[in-house]
Structures are given as C-alpha cells and as structure tokens.
Write a structure and sequence with these properties.
By secondary structure, the chain is mainly alpha-helical. The protein is 79% helix and 0% strand. α1 crosses α2.
Length: 133
C-alpha cells in the first residue's frame, strides 16, 4: 500500500490534468480519490470542485517553494534530480520490464538510475533546507 501511495503522489498531477488510458493510472486514481469526486460518466476525470481543489493545492505548494527558496539553482537541482532520473532511467526500465519482461540491462538501469535519483534528490533537498535556514 505504501508504494501505491507513493506512486499516487508522483502521478497525481498527471491524472488530474489530463485523461490517462493506462490501467495503472486508473487504479491509482480510483485508490487516491473518493468515488464522489469522479464524474459519473467518466471514471478517470474529477468533478470541477475536486479538480479545482487539487489544482489549487498543487499550485499553492509550488508557489510556496518558489517563494521560500533562496535561489533558483536549488529548485532546479531538486527538479532535475527527481524528475530527470525518472524520465531518463526509471520509466524506460519499467517500460522494458512491461514490454519485454525481466532482463539484466533494464534491471541495471533501474537500480543505478534509482540510486542516482534517490541520492541526488536527498542531497538536493538537504541543500535546499540548509540554504533556507
């Protein structure tokens, strides 16, 4: 359940801003949102109040980070480490697992990319906190 919650956190902006046709995204959206938030006709779209609420919360968090950050470099480091490694390493390896099944190269890319992303994100957050103090 923890990995599903973590995945929902990472994919929530994508799921609430545009319809997604993947089964994983649908499962996450159903798990992460109450049933009364979804449109009756389309089980992948939020109703207007829920959409506005989620969008406003995401905007508020992003704006708060932008205001609190002492420099743009810290934010760029954090975004680059978190999303860059996901786009360049993690997602291609997961797609390879999904399409071709297990192979050693995809596992190597997944492990190395995950380690680089984890450590890079940790140190970027650490530097951002130190610069904010």
């Amino acid at each position: 359940m923890t990995s599903l919650a973590l995945t929902a956190t990472w994919t929530l902006p994508m799921n609430v801003t545009m319809p997604s046709s993947t089964e994983l995204s649908r499962r996450i959206l159903h798990t992460a949102t109450p049933k009364n938030w979804l449109l009756p006709d389309d089980d992948r779209q939020l109703q207007l109040p829920g959409h506005i609420g989620v969008t406003f919360k995401l905007w508020l968090v992003a704006t708060g980070f932008a205001i609190a950050a002492p420099s743009l470099g810290d934010i760029l480091d954090l975004v680059g480490c978190a999303s860059g490694t996901l786009i360049a390493f993690i997602i291609p390896a997961l797609l390879s697992f999904r399409l071709d099944g297990y192979n050693n190269l995809a596992m190597f890319i997944f492990v190395v990319g995950g380690a680089v992303g984890t450590f890079g994100t940790y140190y970027s957050v650490k530097q951002l906190i130190l610069d904010m103090i």
